[in-house]
Amino acid sequence: MVPLGKTLRMASHDTLPRYNDLMLPVLRAIEALGGSATGREISNQVVEAEGYTDEQVAIQYPNRPLSVLLDRMDWARSYCKLGGALESPKRGLFLLTPVGRDVLAMPDDAARTRLADMDRQVRSARPAKPRKAGEVAAPADEEQVAREAAMEEAGDESDAWRERLLARLHRLTPTGFEEFCMYLLRRYGLHLTRVGGTGDEGIDGIGTAPLSEVLSATVAVQAKRFDPASSVGRDTVALFQRDAAAAGAERAVFITLARFTAPARKAATTVTPRVDLIDGERLCDLVRAQEIGLTIQPVVNEDWFDRFDSEGAR
C-alpha cells in the first residue's frame, strides 16, 4: 500500500490528464472489458492500461478526500454518455453504443478529434445559468463545467454523499471501523465472531456466509481503515489470504476505504481462499443498499407521466 502523505495531498493537478483526455481511454477500457462494465471496473482498467501509478491515483483535491484522477475518469465517462458514445441501462453499468464503437474503429488522432467535438457539443448544449441584474459572468472553468454536467447527467443526485460517507468512516477509530464492517456484513446475513483487536494484522472476524438456503461457507474478514485515496497492494491481500487459509476459511472478505491495485485484484482470485474485495466505492453502495446512517429521498420524475397525457392514452 502507498500511504497518502502531505506531499501527495498538495501535488499539482497539472501533472494529471484532463477529463476530456480520458474519454478515449474510458471507451477503450469498456471495449477491453467486453463492451460493458461498471464504473469501478472502468476506472481500474484505465489505471492499469494507461500505467498510472499509485502516487498519481492518490493525488486529492485540496479540501476534499477524493482522487482527482478517478474523479476525472468519472467526468470522462459522463461526457461519453452525454455525447452518445455510451449508454447506462442501469445505474453504475455502462454499455458501448454504435457511436462509441465507431469512435474506437477510428485511428487514434481521428478518434480524439471526434471526442473533442463531442465534448464541445455537449458543453455548448448546456443552457447558461441565469445571472442577477448587473452580475458579470465569470470565466468558464472547464473542470467545474464538467462537474456540473456530470451531476445533471445523474439527475438530482450527485456523488457528494459518497465523499461525506467515506470521510466519516475514515474518522472512526480502527476498532470502530472494524466493528462497523462486522455490523454491515451481519446485515447481509453473515454470522461472524469478532477476533483480533487494534493493531492486529490478521483476521478481524470469522464465521459463516450463506451460499444458499442449505449451504454455507466458512469466511474470514479483514477490515482496514486505509485512507480513501490510497491503494492496497498485492502483498497485503496475499498476507490476509495466508491468515485466512490457516484459520480454515473457505472464503474471505477484505474491506477498506481505499482502492485495490490490479495485482491485488488478481491475487484475490488466483489462489484459495478466494477474497472478495470491497473497496471504498463498493462499501458506499453496500451501505446505501442497507440505508445505514443515511436517508434516501424519493425523487418524482414528472416527465415520466407525460405518456399518459397523450390523446392515445385517453
Lay out the secondary structure:
Layout: H1 6-9, H2 23-32, E1 36-38, H3 39-50, H4 54-58, E2 60-61, E3 64-67, H5 68-82, E4 86-90, E5 93-96, H6 98-105, H7 108-125, H8 142-153, H9 160-170, H10 174-187, E6 191-194, E7 205-210, E8 216-224, E9 231-232, H11 234-246, E10 251-256, E11 259-260, H12 262-270, E12 274-278, H13 280-290
Parallel strand pairs: 8-10, 9-11, 10-12
Antiparallel strand pairs: 1-5, 2-3, 4-5, 6-7, 7-8
Helix pairs in contact: 2-3, 2-5, 2-6, 5-8, 11-12
Care to describe what's here?
By secondary structure, this protein is an alpha/beta fold. The protein has two domains: 150 residues; 125 residues, 3-Layer(aba) Sandwich (Trna Endonuclease, Chain: A, domain 1). It contains 13 helices and twelve strands. It has a five-stranded mixed sheet with strand order 6-7-8-10-12. A three-stranded antiparallel sheet has the order 1-5-4. A hairpin with a 2-residue loop joins strand 4 and strand 5. Helix 2 packs across helix 3, helix 2 packs across helix 5 and helix 2 crosses helix 6. The longest helix has 18 residues.
Keywords for this entry:
about 325 residues, 13 helices, globular, three-stranded antiparallel sheet, 12 strands, disordered N terminus, Trna Endonuclease, Chain: A, domain 1
